[in-house]
Every structure is written in structure tokens, then in C-alpha cells.
Amino acid sequence: MDNIYKIILEETLAGYWDCYLQEDKVILSAAFKAMFGYQDHELPNTTDTWAKLIVPEDMPRMDECLKGHYDSHGEKPFNIDVRYTHKNGSIVWINSTGRVIEWNGDIPIRMVGRHIDITEQKNTEQTLEISEETFRNAFEYSPIGVVLVSTAGKFMKVNKSICDMLGYTERELISKTFQEITHPEDLEADLSLLQKTLNNQIQTYNLEKRYIKKDGNVIWVLLYVALVRDKAGEPLYFVSQIKDITERKKAENKLRESERRWIFASEGSGGGIWDLDLRNNTIFHSKQCLSMIGLDEHEFSNEPGQWTRRVHPDDRERYVADVRAYINGETDIYTNQHRVLCKDGTYKWILDRGKVIEYDENNKPARIIGTHVDITDQKQQEQHLRETLDVASSQNARLLNFAYIVSHNLRTHASNFKMIMDVLADPVTSNEERQELSGHLTKVSEQLNDTIANLNEVVSIQTNVDIQTSELDLLSYFNRAIELLGNEISLWHVHIDNQIPADCTLTYSPAYLESIVHNLVSNAIKYRSAIEHPKITIRYFNENNRQGFTIADNGIGIDLEKNGNDLFGMYKTFNGNRDAKGMGLFITKNQVEALGGKIEVESKLGKGTTFKVYLT
């Protein structure tokens, strides 16, 4: 029977050993020695041989494990991972298990066991630890505040940016709820949106709100919130991204205050005065009115139309229409903002207001008096504010992209890890299968590491108006997406015809390209035909110096007449798929257009869909 067990161990590539503890005698199998690069005859069968192979730093752990097994009379198992030195000098990780099978009272006489090479598994574990550390760094060192919040509102995890923003230490902030630091006037709106998210009425939400800092000061933030659910759809926690917009809010308030001052100044001083006499068809402009545009009184006659000719061509039509509408009684007040040509060739913005003060015998306007106010500075401030708001809107869109990429891309990696680890944990899985799965783990961890690196780039994009790009190999991104989706492709027997040439390179954002390709390929699989063998064809094109690709499938198709206008809309779904979030195509379109590209679609119900993506 012993020989049968030994044969089984040898066939499964596990080295066995048989040690007589009270004498210097140990039987080391040929497979045991081969693990370390030795022929059977090269190593004597002694305990000293075994001891010399173990890395010295690991010997104390080995001795302690053996002692625990002896002292417990075999109740405490002998099972330990230890490093050995290979003949070529490399390190081999070994899982060693054994049991004392003969005793003389409490004295162990004979012990047997086996060795299994777990080097590749250990290397994979180390790689995963590095990937996890990279992700933690992406969270911790994000330039915006990132927090994990329980469904009850308690802070679970916070990064340095939010602590600096609010003036709390990490420990202090984790002891609080978001309700405690939210401005009372903003709390109801936040709680209402949070409850809608928990009720699955909305998937995410964002709003501008105020926080109360530790020192009592109030700051304005742009808050984006997404809910993470478990596989059963139950809420786990919220992921919130928080950006300080206090300065933007101050600018808005300053602009509103500026507008009030201009109105007060206009009403109080009248600014420049004009007086239109409709009976005599003449107009008077005061000295202050003309000095605004650099003219003296003698340089401007009382003939109507001179001011109109100086109005900027782009504003003239609206200016004339507003005046006529007021004179004709179509509007109750006259007010208009337009640019006027100054003597020095520049343009100034003028706030123009007027009121009828006399009517003729037919109750028609006979005289209108009005004011001109120079609002050039105000317009410049408005332009600056619009630019500030554009930056904020762009950053908000990128926050949405970041959450989407995290949700979609990392979810694929997590699913792959879970599937592989479930199989590894299954006791019926053979050692050969474990070896193969260990290799898959390594590949998945490498792909996860690449994705996290791209996420780091997305984080930097959120604080930079200019999206960072680099020269990319288009084929490699499709190969990566196909590999990540390999389980679904295999499950549904999808035929992928990837015709992207091997030498195709273009300049693009790595994170955006990965997200665009992954989303379109996964959609083609998700909406496959139920009656035809699924097929996806991928091609590259270069039309008029615009590069891109097409993804064509023979799936269920889309009714473009019915849904074409909403196809790329947020939260729009069309095919009754309960897993559909209505975000994929919305995000894809935004990512494509962010770098000046565009996306087109052709589709027929039951015939399939073709997406054409212009990346450049």
C-alpha cells in the first residue's frame, strides 16, 4: 500500500519523504530532489541534506511548526510554506505537509509527508499585492476627495485630499457621518437623492452642496455619488468623489453682486442719456454717452441710424428687432445688450434701456428716453465665469468617466479573479488544473495592473483640462478586451473576426481607448442573436486622415427610427435587458468626442449593428 501512495505522489509531481526521527535516516523521493534540480544520486538521504536546502531565514518557522506537531501528539497539523534553494541558485517555494505515523509514548519515531512546488502561486500572490497597493495609492493620492460611505451615512474610508479639504484627521472624519458635516440647508436635497439611489430609482447622482469644516468655515463642493451593490443587488456602500468649488461659487456671487451694482449705478446716475424724438425723427446723445465710445459731441449728429451703424454686425439684427418690438407695443420694456464700435477701433459692451415718456394723438410712442451703460468689464467677468464653469463641467464629466471605468473595467477583473479562486478552492481541482489556473491568475493580475495605471491617468485628467494622450497600439487594446471577455466569448461561442492590422498606431488617451473598446465589444456580445451563431467583425479605417475602427455584429439590432435620438442618452435602454444601465453608450460617446472624434451607428432589428468610431 505504501508503494501505491508513493506512486500516486510521484505522478502528481509531489515529492514525498519518509523520516526516521531518532536516527539520521530519511528517504527523499526522486521527485523531491528533482524539484530543486538534482538527480536522485546527487543528494544523500540524510536529514542534513534536507536542512541544507532550506533557506536559513525560514528554518526557525519550520522547527516551530514541527515542534507544535510533536508537542500536540499530532493534533496540530504539520503544514507550512517554506523557501528552498534550487541547484541553479534560484528560490523555490514549497508547501510541505506531513504526519508522525509511529510513536513510542510521546516520542515521535517515524514521520512521512509530501512536498508541492507552489513557486508560481507565491509569485502570483506577490503580484496581486503590488496591484492592490497601486490601487490604494490611486485612492489615497487622488487630487480630489474620495470617500467610501456606508448606507447609513457613516464615513468608512477617506483619502488625504478630503481630510485636507475639511481640516479633519482621518481618524476624526471616520468617526462622523456626512449628515453631521453637511450644511443644514443642503441636507434634505442630499438625503432625498441618496434615498432614490437606494431605492434603485437612479444609479448615481451629483449636486453642489456645502460642508462645514472643522474650524467652522463653510466650503462649497461638487459631489458625485455612486452606489456599489453586491451580486444579489443589495446596497453595500457609496463611493463619493468631492471637489472643492468654493472659489467658483465666490466668482458667481461676485458676478451677481456686480450686476446689482451696475443696475444701481444705471438707475442712480443714468449713465449716458439718449433721447429719441419720433415726431421729428431726431435723436440726442449726451456727452457721457458719446465719451463711452471715445467721441466728442461735434463728431456725432442727431440723425437716427448713426448709433445703429456702429453696433457690431453680429448684434445689430437683435438690437433693431428689440427697438421695433418695443415701439410696436410687442414688449412691455426695452432693454438690449450690444457691442458698439469705438473711435479707436475696439468694441465696448453697452447695456441699452429705454422707456416711452410721450405718446401722440393715436396713442403711439412719440418720445423715448433711455440710458447707455458701459458693461464691458461685466461681460469680461461673465466670459471668465463661463470659462470657469466649462472647466468645472468638463471635470464633472471626467469624474463620471472615472466612476464608469472603475465600475465596468475593474468589475471584469474582479469577476475573473472570483471565478479562478472558486475553482482553486474546489477540492476536486487537480494539481495540473491548479498550475494552469495560477498562470491565468498571473495574466489577470497583469491586466488589472494595466487598468489601474490607466485609472491613475484618469484621476490626473480630472484636474487637467488637457487630456493626456500617447501613441497607442490599437490591436493590443482589442486583444486585451477580447481576452478579458474570454469567458463570455467562450460561453456563447462568439466568433471574433479581428482585422485590425498589427502595425496600426494612433495618438489617444489610454484610459479612454480601453473603455471605448471594452464597452463596444461587450455590448456586441451582450446583445447577440438568439437564433444565429454570434459573430463580431472588427476593422480599422483611415479616411481623409481620420483614423478609427468599426465593430459590426449580427445581433438583435436597434430600432433607430424609434430610438435613434435617444441612443446615446444617459440612462437610455432599449432591449429590455435588466442588466442594462443606460450609461455605456453615453459615456462612450462623451469619451470619443472629448478628443474631437465622433461615433456613428447603423442598425436594423434582427440584422445586427455596426458602430463606426472616428478616434482622430
UniProtKB/TrEMBL annotation:
Q: Which residues form the PAS domain?
A: 131-201, 258-330
The EC category is transferase
Keywords for this entry? Kinase, Phosphoprotein, Transferase
The record, for PROSITE patterns, names:
HIS_KIN (PS50109), PAC (PS50113), PAS (PS50112)
State the Gene Ontology terms under molecular function. Answer: protein histidine kinase activity
Q: Where is the PAC domain?
A: 78-130, 205-257, 334-387
- Report the superkingdom from the record: Bacteria
Q: Where is the Histidine kinase domain?
A: 405-616
Q: Catalytic activity annotated for this protein? A: ATP + protein L-histidine = ADP + protein N-phospho-L-histidine
Which EC number applies? 2.7.13.3
Database matches in NCBIfam families: sensory_box
In Swiss-Prot or TrEMBL terms, this protein is called: histidine kinase
